[in-house]
Design brief:
By secondary structure, this protein is mainly alpha-helical. It is built from five helices and no strands. Helix 2 (about 45-60) runs antiparallel to helix 3 (about 65-75), helix 3 (about 65-75) packs antiparallel against helix 4 and helix 3 (about 65-75) runs parallel beside helix 5. Bound molecules: zinc ion (ZN).
Length: about 120
């Protein structure tokens, strides 16, 4: 599953199987022992970095406001997620800067809407 992609500067994903106490396989996110699918546990434990990955995807798609919402959510779940902190700082810095983009107001509205829908 691509959501397991690991940002740099972070320890590897480690979620033990509740039954076997064996860590989930990094690639398949299944227990190597009983083959239980541990993806849901991984998602709970690492929701922050999954949001971070999603934010990167939004950025690649050009949706910076959506990326910011995802980064804030990521930092709510994992406050120490340094790549997310750095990226959010970059993004908010870029927004304060006098960007010559006429659709800046639209972006702000979109961000507010997404954030409200998130609650
Ligand atoms: Zn197991």
């Amino acid at each position: 599953m691509s959501t397991a992609a690991n940002p740099p500067d972070l320890p590897p994903i480690e979620v033990p199987c509740p039954q076997c106490a064996v860590p989930a396989d990094q690639e398949s996110l299944r227990c190597p022992s009983c083959r239980e699918d541990l993806a849901v546990l991984v998602r709970l434990r690492y929701a922050g970095r999954i949001d971070y990955n999603e934010a990167l995807a939004q950025l690649r798609g050009g949706d910076a406001p959506a990326a910011q919402v995802l980064l804030r959510r990521a930092l709510t779940t994992e406050p120490d997620l340094r790549p997310a902190l750095a990226l959010l700082a970059d993004l908010t810095g870029a927004r304060v800067a006098p960007a010559a983009r006429t659709e800046a107001a639209d972006h702000t509205d979109a961000a507010a809407r997404t954030e409200a829908a998130d609650r």
